[in-house]
């Protein structure tokens, strides 16, 4: 029942969009019998696009719309949705500022807003640290490795390997290694870096940094490989010409290589930001965001509330907030960066 | 005369090569040094994990950083002779292969008219798929779970179909320019030879688009193989199959004290993905940088 209703609502935007591009003139090549041909064409289009469109509308668009709807209700998700009570934007105001009711504000601030802002802060810190720490490290490694040396292809292969592992196994691996009795903890202690009071992961302060380290271990290979792919597209003549003119290695990198792989860097930054907003698996596997939420993310908070507290409405509000963050990132990226890169490409006369 | 010119150019080439290596022959050691550190930081933890699986819990407790002494095969043998590890791996394999097949088939089919037909609403449909990139599965997980329950979609299909749906946007986005780039002459010639558009799709597009299909397929496979949230949520609801990532966390939960066992299990769970990566490395990298450029 709900599914039918769903695909109905889901088609809405599509038909709107259809109308908006009605101006583009349809061209029908090789038309012998125009009418029959046109009907046949639409039939073919339906056959080709239909399955994908149907699956997409039912399993992507419809759940998104339902998430938006649920987020406006007070709903114990163990009960059928019919029993839910419409509360407008209360779930959102609770997350953002502990609700609007002065009487409950203090309690709700502690219960809703505090964990929410803690998670948002962690997501934001991961984004910022990716740009400030992962990016420069990956860039330096890529620039240094961007030359011929013995074993080059194996080195690239190995550096990229963690990216293909699941966050689950990568997370569990580090959980073992960084256990208070684990080998890496012991090794670090042997060279004078003793683990913090609560352990590498559970310490309220150090836990976040350990988490960031693990995320970086898994994902920095992607940055390096993308940057290397970008660097291989820089014409070697440019670098040669610059060094003949007496530019130092650093000057060549700084003036030629880094600016020329700008588009690649921006794309990586976008992927990294979107990934950071939606980070879930790793934080959940380590310890559901940490016992004091030291590395909780919006997604872990959402799943925690949805499955442990069965607050379907509030969990959905968090989902929508997460979606809004992703959308803002995507739209900012598209308007700022793509216009610039495409403009540059068009300028080259491609 | 000719030789003199040649000499001159070779000398110049030699000189410029020397200049490019500026900072010169010693800088290769910097490169190798950085490469070694990067490789060590990447492989070190994985080796530690694998070696830990060859030790007993007693060995690990008394000397966490030591090598296996003696080497113990028991942890690995127990896992590999038990049924659950293989069962989970098989589940993951079936789900990932089915997801990949569905994504590649439906995605390429959808991309074909979007690339090569002109019709009203074409850009609108494409835009909608593009917008799908902003809807990650994480955001839709609870409504999706309820929807699957309402539809009675459990078991493997409850994982395969949503994973296909969420992988479609990136597939359509990569495949559309790929299919649009096929030369028009090819299409005209095929129509001249009496091939219909449907015939053209099956006889010409699919064979020619194979590189693109492999690329999107590899990405879809990895995504499905590594998926965690959907199997996790589905498992709590109905008897969904346990996939390998879930299996590892289950084993860890049930054997919390068996440090060496967890290490062995986690290490074994890494191997299929690493083997797949070794086989498909070029495709994965091309796919990612292709997706990035496209």
Q: Which terms would index this structure?
A:
heterodimer, A: mainly alpha, MetI-like fold, 2 domains, two-stranded antiparallel ribbon, 14 helices, globular, disordered N terminus, disordered C terminus, B: 294 residues, 81% helix
Q: Can you characterise this structure?
A:
The complex is a heterodimer of chains A (350) and B (294). Chain A is mainly alpha-helical and 350 residues long. Chain A has 2 domains: 1-7 and 32-70, no CATH class; 113-347, MetI-like (MetI-like fold, Orthogonal Bundle), CATH 1.10.3720. Chain A has 14 helices and 2 strands, in the order ααββαααααααααααα. Chain A has helices spanning 2-20, 34-70, 90-97, 105-145, 152-164, 167-177, 183-190, 206-232, 236-244, 249-260, 262-277, 281-287, 298-307, 312-347, and strands spanning 73-74, 85-86. In chain A, strands 1-2 form a two-stranded antiparallel sheet. Residues 1-28 and 345-350 of chain A have low confidence and may be disordered. With 294 residues, chain B is mainly alpha-helical. Chain B folds into 2 domains: 17-75, no CATH class; 83-254, MetI-like (MetI-like fold). Helices cover 81% and strands 0% of the residues of chain B. Chain B has helices at 2-20, 24-52, 57-62, 74-81, 84-116, 122-131, 137-151, 157-180, 184-192, 197-208, 210-226, 229-237, 244-254, 259-293. The longest helix of chain B is centred in the C-terminal third of the chain and has 35 residues, at 259-293. Chain B starts with a helix and ends with a helix. The relative contact order of chain B is 0.12. The chains are: A mainly alpha (350), B mainly alpha (294). The interface between A and B is large, with 119 and 107 residues.
